[in-house]
Write a structure and sequence with these properties.
The chain is mainly α. 69% of the residues lie in helices and 6% in strands. It is built from 19 helices and 6 strands. Strands 1, 4, 5 and 6 form a 4-stranded mixed sheet that branches. A hairpin with a 2-residue loop joins β2 and β3. The radius of gyration is 24 Å and the shape is globular. The two termini are 30 Å apart.
């Protein structure tokens, strides 16, 4: 069945063009991920990170590399990826809540275009801050090959900022002309690109006397987590809605019953991406200063240890941010007030619920769904830390066993396959799921 479906994907002209275009853009993106920025000594950079890997002190670079496919430790043109853009999106969404007048402006005609333009302008400023931190980091670890410090900083900031904006443009092109959400696909490709390296490190660890039983247990955990994520993604709470009959002219409308599907995890992988991006900016700045060979200030060193991915403080903050962004994003995308208003305007009602209590009822249902969903995401997010502590795996291996990377891979893969499935069905081709077998678990 899967083989026939893959063949059908390339039979449909529209789908074939979208798939090939997506692959082409990903090839361009991966090329940019291996092009080292001017002014950086590539051999010295390689030596530095190899030494960190031997000492098992490259947690920060490994963390950043997982979202950009190794581009960060190579100081490539695309080393920041789409993370500045995501950070700016978070800031803009928070501003909409703080300033109601800004929200009203966005809701007017052309408001979304203004929002997109402001987000991109803000992204440039975030890129400049992060790229400046890159110059400080490069200087502190001794990989700069240009004697003129001002020239190096200007060149690096221009190159890295331009690279990030090109990355965002590539993501937009995938969304418009390819398959899936472009930004998510780029993050997905960065994570997948690190799999061969992680597998190689695991094999090396086994050869060097690592416990083979631990490896088997870790792989079982990896498969179990994927199964849990897929199972959780299919869960829905169906809210029944009855619509009254209406007579418009000589025709009668309504009189139907339907339902509103609320997913168990309404925000999908967004809270994880938001939380990781939100922590990436201060983490990069602090780690860049802490890498000073002459010794960083004591408070910076302390903060650097606190923001280390293996620290308790970092993981507690990550869990809190995941829960916060789960509620925040759900309120933005599934506003109970707007849903209740649409139900009333179309003559609908929820059985056993008074019309004036619809909003309150929907809010209560969402709260009951978001909390366990966000706790599930948070539990998966801290699994890499537990694996590193228990199994003594390198971070690059542990991050594949759970956490943000795994959920992003599963979430993006399922969403992309759903789009391909829809296009195949639209063109009357067999999809990846047999007809009549596509069902979701209702709660």
């Amino acid at each position: 069945m899967a083989g026939n479906s893959i063949v059908n994907m390339f039979k449909v002209k529209e789908l074939r063009k979208r798939l090939l275009f997506t692959l082409l853009v990903l090839a361009v993106y991966r090329l940019g991920c291996v092009l080292t920025i001017p002014g950086v000594n590539a051999s010295a950079l390689l030596t530095y990170f190899e030494e960190l890997a031997r000492q098992n002190k490259n947690s920060f670079s490994s963390y950043m590399d997982f979202f950009v496919g190794g581009a960060f430790s190579q100081f490539s043109v695309f080393m920041l990826g789409v993370m500045p853009y995501i950070s700016t999106q978070i800031i803009m969404q928070l501003l909409l809540i703080v300033f109601p007048s800004l929200k009203r402006t966005i809701q007017e005609d052309g408001g979304q275009q203004k929002m997109a333009a402001w987000t991109r302008i803000g992204t440039i400023f975030v890129c400049l801050i992060q790229s400046y931190a890159v110059t400080v980091y490069a200087k502190n670890i001794g990989v700069v090959s240009i004697n003129n410090e001002v020239a190096f900083k200007m060149l690096t900031m221009l190159t890295v900022t331009t690279g990030s904006m090109i990355t965002i443009w590539l993501g937009d092109q995938i969304t418009a002309r390819g398959i899936g959400n472009g930004i998510s696909i780029l993050i997905f490709s960065g994570i997948v690109a690190r799999i061969p390296s992680a597998v190689s490190q695991m094999v090396t660890q086994i050869k060097n006397g690592g416990n083979f039983v631990f490896v088997i247990v870790a792989i079982v955990i990896f498969v179990a987590i994927i199964a849990l994520v897929v199972f959780e993604e299919g869960g829905e709470r169906k809210i029944p809605v009855n619509y009254a009959k209406r007579v418009v002219g000589r025709k009668m409308y309504g009189g139907t019953s339907t339902y509103i599907p609320f997913k168990v995890n309404p925000s999908n992988v967004i809270p994880l991406i938001f939380a990781s991006s939100f922590l990436a900016l201060p983490n990069q700045i602090v780690q860049s200063v802490a890498a000073n060979e002459n010794g960083a200030p004591k408070w910076v060193t302390t903060l650097s240890r606190m923001l280390n991915q293996e620290s308790i403080v970092y993981n507690v903050v990550l869990v809190v941010l995941i829960i916060f962004f789960a509620y925040f994003y759900t309120q933005v995308t599934l506003n109970p007030t707007e849903i209740a208003k649409q139900i009333r305007e179309n003559g609908g009602s929820i059985p056993t619920v008074r019309a004036d209590k619809t909003e309150e009822y929907l809010q209560k249902i969402l709260n009951r769904l978001v909390l366990p969903g966000s706790l599930f995401l948070a539990a998966i997010a801290i699994i890499p830390t537990l694996i590193m502590i228990i199994f003594k795996f390198p971070q690059s291996v542990a991050m594949l066993m759970g956490g943000t990377s795994l959920i992003i891979m599963v979430g993006v893969a399922t969403d992309t396959m759903a789009q391909i499935e829809a296009l195949l069905k639209m063109h009357h081709q067999d999809g990846f799921v047999k007809k009549g077998k596509i069902r979701s678990r209702s709660l």
